[in-house]
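Researcher: Let's continue the batch. This sequence belongs to Ribulose bisphosphate carboxylase small subunit domain-containing protein, and it's 96 residues. Same format as the previous ones, please.
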Amino acid sequence: MWGLPMFDLADPAGVVHEVNECRRAYPDHYIRLNAYDASHGRQTTALSFIVQRPADEPGFRIDREETRDRQVRVRLHPYALDRPRGARRASAEEPD
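Model: Same format as before. Here are the structure tokens for Ribulose bisphosphate carboxylase small subunit domain-containing protein:
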């Protein structure tokens, strides 16, 4: 979580400033923006989206397994785990 919640915000420039500061601090990370709405008497998520993705995003594979009684199990497997620790980030010079 970055910064403090910005209650009663009237100018969206404050949000843009905080997003840009977070991007400078974490240039190679995912950054997600969450907007909350407390008009219903409780804090509920009104909006949520990714504002930044890392340059190196290896992705995921879906492993499907059929079990007894026709049940299907699905697991996400990150491609980064196919490499040993310390070599999980792909570089631009690395051949495919």
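Researcher: Any comment?
Model: Residues 63 and 75 are 5 Å apart (CA to CA).
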